[in-house]
Amino acid sequence: MIRGSMVALITPFNEDGSVNYDKLRELVEWHIAEQTDAILVLGTTAETPALTITEEDEIARISIETAAGRVPIIVGSGSNNTMIAMEQSIKYEKMGADALLVITPYYNKTNKAGMVNHFYTVADAVNIPIYVYNVPGRTGVSLTYEALAEISKHKNIVGIKEASGDMSFITKISRLITDDFNVYCGNDDISIPLMSMGGAGIISVLANILPRQTHEMAMAYLEGDVKKAADMQKYYLDFINALFIETNPIPIKEAMNLVGMNVGGYRMPLCPMEEDTKAKLIETMKAIDLL
User: Fold this and answer.
1) Is 227 a catalytic residue?
2) Residues 188-224: tens digit of each pLDDT
3) Helices then strands, each counted (H, E), the chain
4) Active site located where (predicted)?
5) Which helix H or strand E contains 28, and what residues bound it?
6) Nearest CA to 190 among 163, 208, 172, 215?
7) Which among 2, 19, 22 has a CA at the least distance from the CA of 74?
8) Dihedral angle of Cα 134, 60, 253, 239, to the nearest 10 degrees
9) DSSP string of 92-159?
10) Burial category of 91 from C-beta neighbours within 10 Å (exposed 0-12, middle 13-18, buried 19 and up)
């Protein structure tokens, strides 16, 4: 059971729009040095819908190879096609992934039985841990408590990345937390409130630019220093909100480039920030001495 801060890693691009695999290796090494507790590749923040299967496979391979067991690598393998999700999950397990992130099947909008069967089919096909990913703002479908209660019983399903932002729902699903299943925050603005309900950590966009601080905030709470964790959550809140002032990962990549991390641009249909929202981002970065 991973505890602490897991970065939802961006995908770096070269000027010509190709994936910058050298920068990817550099980012993995940097996160290890900065005490990130696990690295998630091929999630939403990675612009996965705009990547080819070949690129996804190479990102997973390089990340696993570079980490070399020093930090867990979680690979996004989900799809709204159950068979593809199963095939990708098997592939990444064979590559050496430590765990998988599997999103709820979007667009199809299945019922409870279909949702449960989707995750059971994928989980039955592998022997490594799976984290369910609930992000209704992206998918147009949300897990119900009843479906998650069933899904969480599978021995290979060890947690959920909960990104609905609904604290009422989070409170309800926290009743499912056991030694074998936990809840992870997928919204940086409520990471400490979610952890107060028993959550084990954060799957973070913020950690792309402030990995050590995000780790320290999560561990402060987990080690009992609630005041420090809460103070850090509040201190970074305006910047966190600015990271979602436009569609993720546009603002986080903009912020990383502003501080000289040179992670490149975006894949269409994503594009650079508008000038007014960029100005707000810069203002919040200056407020926390990032610029």
Assistant:
1) no
2) 999 999 999 999 999 999 999 999 999 999 999 999 9
3) 13, 8
4) 133, 161
5) helix 21-33
6) 163
7) 2
8) 50
9) HHHHT-SEEEEE--TTT---HHHHHHHHHHHHHT-SS-EEEEE-HHHHS----HHHHHHHTTSTTEEE
10) middle
Scanning the structure block, which residue is given the tokens 């923040």? 45
Domain 4-225 maps to which CATH number in 3.40.1000.70, 3.20.20.60, 3.20.20.70, 3.40.630.30? 3.20.20.70
Element (H, E) at 204: strand 201-204
The candidate with the shortest Cα–Cα distance to 28, out of 7, 47, 42, is 7
235 is catalytic: no
Q: How many residues are listed for the chain in this entry? A: 291
pLDDT in tens, 160-183: 999 999 999 999 999 999 999 999
Kindly give the pairing relationship between strand 38-41 and strand 201-204: unpaired
State pTM to two decimals: 0.96
Q: Average pLDDT of 121-141?
A: 95
Residue 177 in marked binding region:
no
- Is 203 annotated in a binding site? The answer is yes
